[in-house]
């Protein structure tokens, strides 16, 4: 008797990788979805803080020097914007053998409407 031949040699190559790819994609999707929701919460908190500061300023309880705030935060925000994405990708994909599937799942999770 001869051994059964598979339908596709590509399937033979990919079959051992499927568990890593599926787990990586699932974890990437979950991480992307979580980041999207956490980002919304952070933006709501920042918006609420800004409204409270503006309300206090309107009633002249505090005085805010917005030019000074901008001068203090601009270098930090510029540096964080340039390095933040690189840092986040390093942290999320450290020691992952399925980084490609994770990255694809992360992008889908960030864009999904769940």
TrEMBL record:
Keyword annotations: Membrane, Transmembrane, Transmembrane helix
Location within or outside the cell: Membrane
Broad class of the protein's primary localization: membrane
Source organism, top-level taxon: Bacteria
Residue intervals passing through the bilayer: 17-35, 42-67, 87-110
Family, as annotated: Belongs to the FUN14 family.
Protein name (record): FUN14 domain-containing protein
